[in-house]
Design the sequence.
């Protein structure tokens, strides 16, 4: 028997000699042994025997190969996660751009990512895989945020809206100080809260449950910011009142931009002409937005006049600050709009087109649009300031004063150039030209029937325009001149409010210091619906007063040093020139 063939042979040899049965060597043993050793079967068995004796471990080789493949896949997945993180931070649509961006990165020389995408049957680029990876990133980042927020005092920002399925929900954001010193204040988006009802009680309970579920102590709320509706800002039973009961040291800040938008919205009740303007601008936008054929006619007529083909800008009905761009676009393409309406009406005779054209040629409406182009410019500047990420609300009264001064100076310009508005360098200066255009395009019998036949730009300003500006100024003053005393006291920290003379420094900000000491240095008791909340003082009043008085000296020293450095730089620059 041949042990190599017996132990390492194949099962195909059912009755081979030396394998399954013994062989008698007889008189020629050497010849038989050589014949068997040179056979293919014996050589195959010896080869298997040799491999079996080697030090190569097949299981270990498989493990090494799997480990190498895992490392390669993990390296590729890390790059995919980094690409997703970049797409998210750029605020791009993830589901639409992620796959394209990842393939782009792979094709610019990232070898391992390119090899992974080309060789692997699973590339993790499907919408479900990308969504799952985004959720993993969300969980990871949320854990970091919640760790950073643990035990910190913070500001709560919340706003209610409806999603695409018309479900009521609230977006929640938190602002707090940074411990790493890289950013002084950081803003975190915490998520959406689904609301069963729109009542103040339901909203407050949903907010508390949401924050407690993330292990955030609601008693650490120091400032809360909501919109101006009664449900959120009500002082008796609104959300801000209920939050103040949970955290008596919280100070409510009404959304200033929302308050500014309401100033213009309130004017509609006293000036119905504003509603007519809004209806005209919106109907004109719908006319071209939902009809490519009519939009093509409008663009063709603009090209005939040698102007860039532009579309009508939408004026949001609930956001009157968007009317500046819509009004400016209406005036800049007024003649083209009239020609377009005439061409479309001559072809189809649609009553809708006739009604829109009648409104567009109404002198009161056109004059109001011109007036909005002037008065909304300073108002929009204030709005853009309020939309900045880091707004210094202690400087807000100064910004409001600049806006009010701009509006009142606009009235002075109108009256100074009365009878000669063409030279006033305002948008309303175009009123005479547009009125002549309206008269040229309006039939005599129709002009005789219109009530505004004798309307002039000066008459419109005296009857409607100037009273509207004064009403807007009064609305802005009422909306912004009444702030929380504690918030106003923080203006003490604004270096721009420091006195010019050092002799006035001891008396500077004493009232604000006392206000802050009284608020943060005394315990609070709050009673709401029969429930009482008692909290101790946040700070020692004596120590707080001492530190605040020393702070104003330091602020003054820093301002003086900065001014002297500025003087030195200007002197150096002047000497070099």
Sequence:
């Amino acid at each position: 028997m041949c042990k190599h063939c017996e132990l390492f042979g194949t099962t195909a040899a059912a009755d081979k000699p030396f394998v399954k049965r013994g062989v008698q060597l007889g008189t020629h043993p050497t010849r038989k042994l050589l014949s068997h050793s040179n056979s293919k079967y014996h050589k195959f068995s010896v080869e298997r025997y040799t491999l079996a004796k080697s030090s190569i471990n097949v299981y270990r080789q498989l493990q090494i190969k799997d480990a190498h493949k895992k490392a390669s896949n993990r390296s590729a997945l890390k790059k995919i996660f980094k690409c997703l993180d970049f797409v998210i931070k750029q605020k791009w649509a993830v589901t639409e751009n992620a796959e394209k961006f990842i393939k782009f990165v792979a094709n610019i020389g990232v070898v391992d990512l390119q090899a992974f995408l080309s060789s692997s049957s699973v590339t993790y680029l499907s919408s479900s895989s990308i969504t799952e990876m985004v959720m993993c990133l969300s969980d990871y980042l949320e854990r970091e945020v919640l760790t950073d927020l643990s035990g910190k005092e913070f500001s709560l920002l919340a706003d209610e809206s409806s999603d695409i399925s018309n479900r009521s929900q609230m977006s929640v954001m938190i602002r707090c100080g940074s411990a790493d010193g890289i950013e002084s204040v950081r803003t975190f988006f915490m998520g959406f809260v689904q609301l069963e009802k729109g009542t103040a009680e339901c909203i407050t309970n949903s907010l508390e449950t949401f924050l407690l579920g993330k292990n955030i102590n609601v008693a650490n709320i120091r400032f809360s910011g909501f919109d101006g509706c009664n449900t959120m800002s009500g002082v008796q039973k609104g959300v801000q009142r209920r939050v103040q009961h949970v955290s008596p040291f919280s100070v409510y800040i009404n959304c200033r931009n929302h308050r500014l938008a309401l100033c213009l919205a309130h004017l509609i009740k006293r000036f119905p002409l504003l509603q007519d303007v809004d209806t005209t601008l919106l109907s004109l936008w719908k006319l071209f937005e939902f009809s490519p054929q009519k939009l093509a006619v409008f663009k063709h007529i603009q090209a005939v006049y040698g102007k860039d083909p532009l579309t009508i800008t939408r004026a949001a009905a609930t956001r009157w600050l968007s009317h500046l761009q819509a009004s400016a676009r209406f005036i800049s393409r007024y003649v083209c709009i009239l020609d377009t309406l005439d061409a479309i009406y001559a072809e189809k005779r649609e009553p809708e087109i006739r009604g829109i054209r009648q409104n567009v040629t109404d002198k009161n409406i056109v004059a109001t649009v011109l007036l909005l182009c002037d008065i909304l410019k300073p108002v929009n500047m204030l709005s853009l300031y309020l939309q900045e990420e880091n707004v210094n609300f202690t400087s807000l009264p100064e910004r409001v004063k600049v806006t009010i001064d701009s509006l009142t100076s606009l009235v002075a310009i109108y009256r100074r150039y009365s009878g000669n508005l063409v030279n006033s360098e305002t948008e309303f200066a175009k009123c005479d030209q547009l009125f002549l255009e309206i008269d040229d395009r309006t039939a005599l019998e129709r002009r005789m029937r219109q009530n505004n036949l004798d309307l002039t730009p000066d008459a419109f300003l005296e009857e409607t325009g100037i009273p509207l500006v004064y009403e807007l100024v009064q609305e802005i003053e009422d909306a912004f001149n009444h702030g929380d005393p504690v918030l106003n006291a923080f203006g003490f920290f604004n270096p721009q409010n420091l006195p010019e003379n050092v002799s006035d420094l001891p008396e500077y900000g004493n009232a604000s210091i006392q206000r802050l000491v009284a608020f943060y240095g005394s315990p609070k008791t709050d009673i709401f619906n029969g429930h009482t909340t008692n909290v101790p003082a946040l700070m020692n009043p004596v120590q707080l007063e001492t530190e605040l008085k020393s702070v104003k000296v330091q602020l003054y020293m820093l301002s003086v040093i900065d001014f002297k450095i500025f003087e030195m730089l200007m002197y150096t620059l002047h000497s070099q020139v």
Q: What stands out?
A: The CA atoms of residues 363 and 435 lie 7 Å apart. Residues 573-577 have pLDDT under 50 and may be disordered. Residues 260-480 form one domain. The chain has five domains: 3-53, 58-137, 150-254, 260-480, 487-576.
